[in-house]
Amino acid sequence: MRPLRTAIAGVLLGVTLLSGCGSNDTATPAPAPLASAAPAASSGPFPVTVQAANGPVTIPAKPQRIVSLSPTATESLFAIGAGPQVTAVDDQSNFPAEAPKTDLSGFKPNVEAITGRNPDLVIVSNDLEGVVAGLGKVGVPVLVLTAATEIDDAYAEIEKLGTATGNRAKADEVVAGMKQKLADLAAAAPKAELTYYHELDVTPYAATSTTFIGQIYALFGLENIADAAPDAAGGYPKLSAEFVAKADPDLIFLADVKCCRQNAKALAERPGWSGLKAVENGDVVELDDDVASRWGPRVVDLAEAIGAGVAKAAG
């Protein structure tokens, strides 16, 4: 398993980061610039034009052979009812179970392998290996939907996928449901002054409040210890074990459980960490790596896990 999970400093750093613990690729060290979060231009009859990170993309007809090389996009496509239109997904798209997983790579996309699937729409999280230009030569539209840097970006991407696939009404429904659920979870959370540490990998990399992940935590009024890091590194600083020990957070959230086998016991074995409040009090929350690294509909599941941890620590 890769020790450096800058994969969310990579899912959220731009490449389908932690697309899951199965990847052996290393994400970029800083977040990729995000395209405009403006809503898609049209939700009516095709053709439609969608604003993506690679500019305006015109889709001539409702796609019936979608290839998704982004685990987040795959989750969103199935959530909005476009699952029957998806004919192939990348090797990291492990949710939902019925997604047609293949050996296609989103980290090293191969144009020839993709065109072999005869797609009429391809979705990626980054323009790697010249995939946009390569597919453009054979007339295949490509949507580059990069990692969200704000919650609204996640909503916008789901809406864009709805427009691109002819499922805008369902996409709007999904977004409305996410907004309501997040609002309900935040309202139900106990009002307590608690600090937290969100661990991306065992290096350890963390995420500050300026990131998409940090904004989810902010809904619960938590104070992020990583915000005081001397080098913010684009929102994903590499902390020292001593830094975390000195900050002694009330809550620790682990997003490196599946990839790196981290848990409360493993933390207690780290030098200087056995006496941390979160470890001693049982306030170490083991997250699902994939849920914690993607910005699709299961953001609500991440928020639920955070809310449960806050309620326990505050109780």
Which outline best applies?
elongated
Strand content: 5-15%
Rg computed from alpha carbons, rounded to a whole number of angstroms: 19 Å
**What helical percentage do the residues reach?**
25-40%
- The number of distinct structural domains comes to 2
The CATH homologous superfamily of the largest domain is called Nitrogenase molybdenum iron protein domain
CATH topology (fold) name of the largest domain: Rossmann fold
Q: Widest sheet: strand order?
A: 4-3-5-6
Examine the secondary-structure arrangement and name the CATH architecture of the largest domain: 3-Layer(aba) Sandwich
Highest-level CATH class of the largest domain: Alpha Beta
Low-confidence stretches: 1-43
Distance between the amino and carboxyl termini: 36 Å
Individual helix count:
13
- Secondary-structure class: alpha/beta
One letter per element, helices H and strands E, the order comes to HEEEHEHEHEHHEHEHEHHHEHH
Mean pLDDT: 88
- Number of E-type strands: 10
Q: Largest beta sheet, briefly?
A: 4 strands, parallel
Keywords: Signal
Family: Belongs to the bacterial solute-binding protein 8 family.
Organism: Herbidospora galbida
GO biological process, one term: cellular response to iron ion
Question: Can you walk through the features of this model?
Answer:
- The structure is a single chain.
- This protein has 315 residues and is α/β, with parallel strands linked by helices.
- The chain has two domains: 48-181, Rossmann fold (3-Layer(aba) Sandwich); 190-314, 3-Layer(aba) Sandwich (Rossmann fold).
- 34% of the residues lie in helices and 12% in strands.
- The protein is built from 13 helices and ten strands.
- The chain has helices at residues 8-11, 71-79, 111-115, 131-136, 151-165, 168-188, 212-218, 241-247, 257-260, 264-268, 277-280, 289-293, 299-314; strands spanning 48-52, 55-59, 66-68, 86-89, 121-124, 142-144, 195-199, 223-224, 251-254, 284-286.
- A four-stranded parallel beta sheet has the order 4-3-5-6. Strands 8-7-9-10 form a four-stranded parallel beta sheet.
- α5 runs antiparallel to α6.
- It is elongated, with a radius of gyration of 19 Å.
- The chain starts with 7 loop residues before the first helix and ends with a helix.
- The model is unreliable at 1-43 (pLDDT under 50).
